[in-house]
Every structure is written in C-alpha cells, then in structure tokens.
Specification:
The chain has about 240 residues and is an alpha+beta fold. It contains 7 helices and 12 strands. The protein has 2 domains: about 5-70, Winged helix-like DNA-binding domain superfamily/Winged helix DNA-binding domain (Arc Repressor Mutant, subunit A), CATH 1.10.10.10; about 75-240, 3-Layer(aba) Sandwich (Chorismate lyase).
Length: about 240
C-alpha cells in the first residue's frame, strides 16, 4: 500500500508523456485541466497535481497561473565552450528577439568586481545590466563589468535589438583566453522580478571572463531560468569542440 501513491503518480506522468511523444499535445498546446484529468484517469487531484508539477520542473510543461498548463517549447541550448550571441541563437530559431537595457554606467568597482577584473578596489569600471527576451519571455539576465582601459567606448554604445554587448565586445577586441564557470542556484528577489520567475525557481548561472594580452577585458554573470534555457556542448577527444 505504501508504494501505491507513487505508482499512481508515475502512471499519470507516463500518460502525459505518451501524449507528448505521440504528438497528440504539441508545443504551445493547452492540455486538459487537472479536473478533466482526474475524471479521465480516475485519480485524485493531488496525484494529478504532483505529476504535472514535476513534468513542469523537468521542462516538459509550462504552467501559467489563472490560465492553465501548456506543452513547453523545446528549451534552447547555448554552447558552453565558446562565446555565443543570444540574439543570433533566438533569431536562428525563427523567434522574435528583444533586449531591455536597465543600466549602462561608469562606477567604482567593489572588492569582488575588482578581483574578477584584476583591478584595484574602487577602480573605474563600466557596468551594464540587461534582459534578453525570446518571444517576449525573459531567457537571460546579463550583469556585465568591462575594463574601460581596454574597451573605452563601451559605455557610449546604444545596446539593444540591433547591437548586443557580446557582439560589440568581440568586434572591439578579440579575446585570447576565456573562462566559464556554471553554477545552479535560485535568483535573488531582484533577479526573479526581472526574469519574471519565482525566487524558488532553479536557475543556471554562467560566469564568464575573457582576457586579451593577459588583461581581463570583461566579467559577466548570465542568469537563465532552467525551465527556459540550457547550456551544453559536444567535444571531440582531441579537444576540438563542435557546434550543437
């Protein structure tokens, strides 16, 4: 008897995933309500709710409060071994890209920012914060610091849909070394507000530094809701990476 709730819950998940695999419910479709699934499957609402909740956490479904549960679009994947421009990725999928710049200023570097850029604490740095959106949905929060000595005109750029910070930096100065660090975590209250997610939603955080001639050009922290984005790469055994 102790295993029965788990068996029912798994059976509900299996039913939903079978509909997805068969194409009965396609990406973007509104699936039947919890009440309807309770009747169709002969299970309790608690069992159905748990199945849908976990399928949402796994990225198969997307639940919209007050509206219902939809089949999730496939999560985009960014290559972890190279610098990519998120605008190019979104446009290549045939989707609409937008960028909201929230901050672009010169400020004194805090101790942690100065350490990341290998500069003295209080040194002048450029600071940019922007949100990248796919079909109007935030998929990446970019919090970037730039060494003004290496890219003096960064703060004068009109970043947005036509020009993204990563594209401009690659045009302005080619890096000869890249560092990527990925962490899993939850957004801060402010990050959650900007990404339009709850503070308990898991996120993928990519921290990147680039160097040119042994000097750090930029340090950026990229926060992605894990239900909307993923990071990955494919690499041959000789160390060469492939796209995908």
């Amino acid at each position: 008897m102790k295993n029965q709730p788990q068996a029912l819950y798994q059976r509900a998940k299996d039913f939903v995933q079978a509909q997805l695999r068969a194409g009965v419910w396609k990406p973007g479709d509104l699936i039947p309500s919890e009440n309807r699934l309770v009747v169709e499957l002969g299970m309790s609402r608690m069992t159905i709710n748990r199945a849908l909740r976990e399928l949402t956490e796994e990225g198969h479904l997307q639940r919209v409060s007050g509206v219902g549960t939809f089949v999730a679009e496939g999560r985009p994947q960014s290559n972890l071994l190279r610098i990519t421009n998120i605008a190019d990725e979104i446009i290549a999928r045939g989707h609409r890209y937008a960028c909201e710049v929230l901050r672009l200023s010169r400020e004194a570097a805090s101790m942690s920012v100065a350490a990341s850029l290998a500069l003295p604490t209080g040194a002048s740095v450029y600071h940019l914060v922007c949100v990248h959106l796919e079909e109007g949905v935030p998929v990446q929060l970019e919090d970037r610091y730039v060494n003004p000595e290496l890219v003096p005109e960064f703060v004068q750029q009109a970043f947005g849909e036509q020009l993204q910070p990563s594209r401009y930096l690659l045009q302005a100065i080619r890096p000869d070394e890249i560092e990527h660090i990925v962490e899993a975590g939850h957004p801060s209250v402010e990050e959650g507000r900007l990404l339009r997610i709850e503070v308990n939603e898991p996120c993928l955080v990519l921290m990147r530094r680039t160097w040119n001639d042994n000097k750090v050009v930029t340090y950026v922290r990229l926060v992605h809701p894990s239900s909307r984005y993923r990071l990955g790469s494919r690499m041959a055994v000789n160390g060469a990476y492939r796209e995908g």
